[in-house]
Amino acid sequence: xxxxxxxxxxxxxxxxxxxxxxxxxxxxxxxxxxxxxxxxxxxxxxxxxxxxxxxxxxxxxxxxxxxxxxxxxxxxxxxxxxxxxxxxxxxxxxxxxxxxxxxxxxxxxxxxxxxxxxxxxxxxxxxxxxxxxxxxxxxxxxxxxxxxxxxxxxxxxxxxxxxxxxxxxxxxxxxxxxxxxxxxxxxxxxxxxxxxxxxxxxxxxxxxxxxxxxxxxxxxxxxxxxxxxxxxxxxxxxxxxxxxxxxxxxxxxxxxxxxxxxxxxxxxxxxxxxxxxxxxxxxxxxxxxxxxxxxxxx
Length: 298
Fold this sequence. Notes:
The protein is of the alpha+beta class and 298 residues long. 23% of the residues lie in helices and 39% in strands. An eight-stranded antiparallel beta sheet has the order 1-2-3-4-5-6-7-10. The chain is globular. The model has no long low-confidence stretch (mean pLDDT 96).
């Protein structure tokens, strides 16, 4: 029986970087979390402890900080991740591939009586922008998205017509609260895009479709969100969603001689339905290694 080394990669995880653009009195803040991982000539590193082709993870961390300064900031996280991947692969002949994952945390200017403050900010909830860039030699893939986008509709949602078994207790409804925390990832065709503009548009399209779709199931809403994105963005090959159904149950107030005409609900955090699907073009180019090690979408 032979033993050999399988697929592997290594790097520095969760490098927290905050960049402040001070070019004017109105400061710009970029708050990101970078995970850098490399692939290459690493056989002897594992088998005999020869580190001659092992770029230290500490060097990867320092590179993230240094390049943010050298490149004049972060910019679109997709562009930053691509430049990092190209640096590691193109500048080190023993590095054949790179995976750069970047999460961006949004900050808003604090509103004052004089308007948005020049240099005071408040963090925008749990929503996070994400990207994972893969580089293998000359081939490059970009998968971007967001997570933690919490949305709710207080009406305009139904659920009925489903199979019934002896274990079914759920009552059919033609009026319910629909709530979810949206995680979305989409794969770009190519790498030359205005990523900031595309991100803003895709996020807005997802929100609009969620709001405007009269939902007969969360699956239907998910599909309509994906369809809206693909129809508007030919540079997107596919979009994948993971959306828990955050249940809201009508509270029985009859023991207190009170009616409850759809006003008082119990918000349950678990268990929850978990809806996942991909909406894709039937002529989309092959994904290659685009989804390799994308969190939640392996």
